[in-house]
Write a structure and sequence with these properties.
Layout: H1 7-11, E1 15-18, E2 24-27, E3 67-71, E4 74-81, E5 97-102, H2 116-134, E6 141-148, E7 160-166, H3 171-181, H4 188-191, E8 196-199, E9 203-206, E10 217-221, H5 233-254, E11 259-264, E12 275-280, H6 287-292, E13 294-297, H7 301-309
Parallel strand pairs: 2-13
Antiparallel strand pairs: 1-2, 3-4, 4-5, 5-7, 6-7, 6-11, 8-9, 9-10, 10-12, 11-12
Helix pairs in contact: 2-5
Bound molecules: zinc ion (ZN).
């Protein structure tokens, strides 16, 4: 019957949601396409490995190396200071650190294509650098993030992650810490159960209730660990499996669409659960989003979670 398909009927399904972390979204499924309709063309890399700052053989093109993990005599993961830092030890008004972690030596691969052992190395490097930054008492917060693809803010094509350590806890993270202190975040995993598309012994991956991005996915610790230093080797392995599974499914579904990854790692005295958020950049934020902090998202997280549960698309 025609009336069933009128836009009015679909618009009546719009829903304003607020999640435990304080994110707000208005879900507008009447505008939505199916998840696989958002698949992009995999971007072609235009820089040659010989000209790439992050490729093996060009190590002299980066600032002096801070740390590396070696496999079979070659580096598997490498870390060095950002050439154009936002924060640095010699900046009196922006004290801190800004580091680059090259996740893999292969110029033409991206993070989801790294082996499970490679994910273990990558997360081990993240853990080492976070712990090292917090040894400095002037550092109050460490943010680890990845920009994949031009639309997600990546300026260099070779797959990499960044770490910024700063002298203040950002306002947004302070708010999150307050919510954690008040116990708001205790039951997140229970309330997200129906949107959970993967879980193992240590971590669960789900599309959050108030998703701000199409196919937004969070990987959250199931246990009491709040800091990387509290994860034992089996929990680190669980995290590597959960992150690899989520990223691989997303890249398969969306054909390597741009995304950001943000690592929420609790400041030393706070109790924010370890949470890694993967944020596909398929829509642009505009006036409404900047004015209200409420994000319009045309894909229901329940639909996104179902798509990410499937192994084939
Ligand atoms: Zn390269």
């Amino acid at each position: 019957m025609m009336w069933k398909h009128s836009s009015k009927m679909f618009m009546e399904n719009n829903e304003l949601r607020l999640d435990a972390l304080g994110n707000q979204a208005v879900l507008t499924p009447w505008r939505s396409k199916r998840p696989k309709d958002f698949a992009t063309q995999r971007p072609t890399k235009t820089t040659l490995p010989s000209k790439c700052f992050f490729c093996p053989g060009n190590e002299h093109m980066t600032p002096p190396e801070i740390d590396r993990i070696t496999r079979n005599g070659n580096w598997a993961v490498r870390c060095f200071p950002n050439k154009f830092p936002a924060f640095a030890k010699n900046f009196p008004k922006a004290y801190g650190r800004h580091e680059v972690i090259v996740e893999l030596p292969d110029h033409y691969k991206t993070l989801s294509e790294v082996s499970l052992a490679g994910f273990g190395d990558y997360l081990e490097m993240v853990r080492r650098r976070v712990q090292d930054a917090y040894k400095d008492k002037r550092i109050k917060y460490v943010q680890v993030f990845k920009n994949e693809g031009h639309e997600a803010g990546a300026s260099l094509e070779h797959s990499h992650t960044q770490l910024v350590a700063m002298p203040q806890v950002p306002f947004m993270v302070q708010k999150l810490a307050e919510r954690a202190q008040k116990g708001f975040l205790k039951n997140v995993l229970r309330s997200e159960k129906k949107r959970t598309f993967y879980e193992n012994s240590g971590f669960a991956a789900f599309c959050p209730y108030a998703s701000r991005f199409h196919l937004e996915s969070w990987i959250m610790a199931k246990g009491k660990a709040r800091h990387f230093g509290e994860l034992d080797s089996s929990q680190m392995h669980s995290l590597a499996e959960a992150l690899k599974t989520t990223l691989s499914r997303m890249d398969l579904l969306l054909n390597f669409a741009p995304y950001n990854i943000v690592f929420y790692i609790s400041p030393p005295k706070s109790k924010i659960p370890i949470c890694i958020q993967i944020l596909p950049r398929l829509a642009k934020w505009a006036g409404f989003e900047f004015g209200t902090g409420i994000i319009m998202n045309s894909m229901m997280p329940e639909v996104a979670a179902k798509a990410l549960s499937a192994r084939k698309y």
